[in-house]
Automatic annotation (TrEMBL):
Signal peptide: none annotated. One of its GO terms (molecular function) is alpha-galactosidase activity. Residues 616-690 form the Glycosyl hydrolase family 36 C-terminal domain. It comes from Nonomuraea maritima. InterPro entries: Aldolase_TIM, Alpga-gal_N_sf, Alpha-glycosidase_related, GH, Glyco_hydro_36, Glyco_hydro_36_C, Glyco_hydro_36_N, Glyco_hydro_b. This is Alpha-galactosidase. Its EC number is 3.2.1.22. One of its GO terms (biological process) is carbohydrate catabolic process. PANTHER family: ALPHA-GALACTOSIDASE C-RELATED, GLYCOSIDASE FAMILY 31.
Amino acid sequence: MSLVTYLAEHRLWLLRTPATSYALRLDADDRPRHVYWGPPLTAEQAATVPGPVCRDGSSFQTEGYGELEGPGFGAPSLLLRYADGGAGVEWRHLGHEIDGGHLAVRFADRHHPLEITLHYRVREDTDVIERWTELRHTGDGEPIRLERSDSASWTLPVLPGVRVSHVVGGWSSESQLKREPLPYGETVLTNRRGTTGHQANPWLMLDAGTAGEEHGEVWSAALAWSGSWQITVQRPPSGPVALTGGFGHDGLSWRLAPGETWTTPVFAGLYGASGFGGISRAWHAYTLRHVLPHPQELRPVVYNSWEATGFDVDLDGQVRLAEQAAALGAELFVLDDGWFGARASDRAGLGDWQVNLDRFPGGLDKLIAAVHGHGMRFGLWVEPEMVNPDSDLYRRNPDWVLHMPHRTRTTLRNQLVLNFARPDVAAWAHDWLDRLVTDHEIDFLKWDFNRAFTEAGHPGHDDPDRLWIDHVRAVYAIIDRLRADHPHLRIESCAGGGGRADLGILARTDEVWTSDNTDAVDRIGIQHGYGQLYPSRTMAAWVTDSPNPLTGRLVPLRFRFHVAMAGVLGLGGNLPEWTPDELAEAAELVARYKEIRPVVQHGELYRLGDTDGPVSAVQYVLDDQIVVLAYRVSARFGHPAEDLRLAGLDPSSRYRDAATGAVHHGAVLTFHGLPLDLPGGDHASTLIHLIREP
């Protein structure tokens, strides 16, 4: 099967994936027009699909989307202003190139010195279609002003009803899934804070209102970008729904200089007919195969010192924690905030990345040696993009932060944002990070980002809004360079929890700190929303103390572990305060997690039950192994746990419970259910590991 076919007589391109097709064609005026996105089509079939037309002949209604000029009235994907006051594009087709699954369609404006290349990429092992755009100024005169430069626009078939799925939230309440009817008009999902954001995430799913977890058509799109972003969905009173998305947000503009090429991030799309669960599994497989740097690895069990010690860190205390963490089975020990400069609280020291020798006499090497001596890897918390005003760095370089002339510099969490769009600031950050990893045996960095952009100016720069883009690109470049120079180094993305989780940062890091909220009950919902798009292999989850330090909720240790086992298990409690019985149970549960870890981190995810129902569960399938984690938050009199119907099994096979030896038939597990042996009372949970018999 050819991945990309060009039908010259129809001026149509057909892109094919294993289970879908996408088609576009040029109209009489050379404008690119969406034709089809859905189940597979042959080239002959695609040639017969009509393009969008004005249905009622009205001069006020067309179905053009993603345009400014001509008869298109949808949300614009591209807003341009020229030096002569003109705007928009009059398309002139220049040609195209096909390289395997990569299609590049080239255009020029009929009058202005602008070339536009629309990029599409499809692969043989995924239904995800990657799209991005390049703009090039081909003249030698004035710059072209870019007021909006989205990566791509997507158009759905006409549907009888439309529902949108996306996530909302805030700090410590990230990834709250919402499924609701799409309003008529324009719906804008955005984040203006300079990073991906806790309040929303740059993906969405659309269906006709009839899709379920394992049935029905779903169209989805996700932006691979870790800064501010905007996705606009338009639902007209009649006709198809369309969406457009890209980096930046409303109110920003950039200058495209003569000879310059401007490349957008990928805005990928995915269609499937197996419900929301099928779409999630397809995104997970794509991320594992084509996004993550080391997808084949199993992520280690981490112990992080933050909730045990806060800023009160020293050599002896961390060595004792490392010994206890190793005894529980931890494989990576991470020293969190407080190891550097005058960092006794969040009020001072950020930016002064020298080891505090009062706390760690002789430096970090003694602690690192102790950690390695216990058979664990060593990791360190860093926040390279931030500075406290009370720091030597800020006193030396007050102009290094984001700021505007004659405006107060707002501090959030007692800190300011360094302007990584400045090459000297980005170079400084790379240099100290490189020295840190080079001079010490550091295996892992927890890269944090604890405040949003404010006063986001770049005084003296002729294109100050570029900082919103160039800052993120500088972060990418620093991480890429660190990883190239230190192949052993692994990195976690953190931004006050899950504020920087997206396909762009996952292409450069190994996991995401999902939320600062470690309350197991809250985490069920947070992990449910996160897993709609991102795989368990990237979802860091800790077991911490009870009562929970954030919510005060009392939850049994077993329940806390079972919730955290649904992702990359970590430990974050104050271990010296745990009882001998708790430590013994924790060691047993860590060992159990290591047995099922390959299935959880690399298996296919099935969501069972409703997170708001009596019992919710997640199931993972990898080859002949099945893992089920089931939770009952609140016991209800007269409502015992019903048998849990599993998914993704072979009805003709038999499955043995690895713990009890009981054998179950696949047909019974699928169509009747698995009996759940849940403890009594609230916060009850269980783990079942099934193995298919030969």
